């Protein structure tokens, strides 16, 4: 069992940056693939980025490649999403998730979820 708490969302102008954090409880942080997803109003939940259990491998959806970076800090049991050059279409609730299995981009394969943090990008 792991609990996830996101923070760092907010309102930012287009072109700006935000860093999302996701703090995980427990001592098994390194046994989970960690992912970030987002959901905009009226749209389906969308994969954003993931990082492997070892931290050696990351993957991001094409729409955020070159702008968003996922990383993890094992000492702090925290995963981050650095978001640069934000666009209005990045506006959504962002969720952190943990997956006990192999790295996946499919939301239904993730076992634990945070409550979400709102990101709003104004034009």
Compact description:
With about 120 residues, the protein is an all-beta fold. It has strands at about 5, 10-15, 20-25, 35-40, 45-50, 60, 70-75, 80-85, 90-100, 110-115, 115-120.
Which structural traits does this protein have?
single chain; 123 residues; mainly beta; four-stranded antiparallel beta sheet; globular
Could you give a short account of the major beta sheet? 7 strands, mixed
Oligomer: single chain
Average pLDDT metric: 96
Measure the end-to-end span. Answer: 40 Å
Assign an overall shape.
Answer: globular
Which class do the helix and strand fractions yield? mainly beta
Q: What is the strand tally?
A: 11
**Cα Rg:** 13 Å
Beta strand %: over 45%
**Low confidence ranges:** none
Order of helices and strands: EEEEEEEEEEE
**Helix run count:** 0
Helix content: under 10%
Explain this structure to me?
- The protein has 123 residues and is an all-beta fold.
- 0% of the residues lie in helices and 48% in strands.
- The protein contains no helices and eleven strands.
- The strands form two sheets. Strands 2, 4, 5, 6, 9, 10 and 11 form a seven-stranded mixed β-sheet that branches. It has a four-stranded antiparallel β-sheet with strand order 1-3-8-7, with no helix packed on it.
- The chain starts with a strand and ends with a strand.
């Amino acid at each position: 069992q792991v609990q996830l708490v996101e923070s760092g969302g907010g309102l930012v102008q287009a072109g700006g940056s935000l860093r999302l954090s996701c703090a995980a409880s427990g001592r098994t942080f390194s046994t989970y693939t960690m992912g970030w997803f987002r959901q905009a109003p009226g749209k389906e939940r969308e994969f954003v980025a993931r990082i492997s259990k070892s931290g050696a491998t990351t993957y991001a959806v094409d729409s955020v490649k070159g702008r968003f970076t996922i990383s993890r800090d094992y000492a702090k049991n925290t995963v981050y999403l650095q978001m640069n050059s934000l666009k209005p279409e990045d506006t959504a609730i962002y969720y952190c998730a943990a997956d006990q299995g192999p790295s996946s981009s499919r939301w239904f394969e993730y076992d634990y979820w945070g409550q979400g943090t709102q990101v709003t990008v104004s034009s």
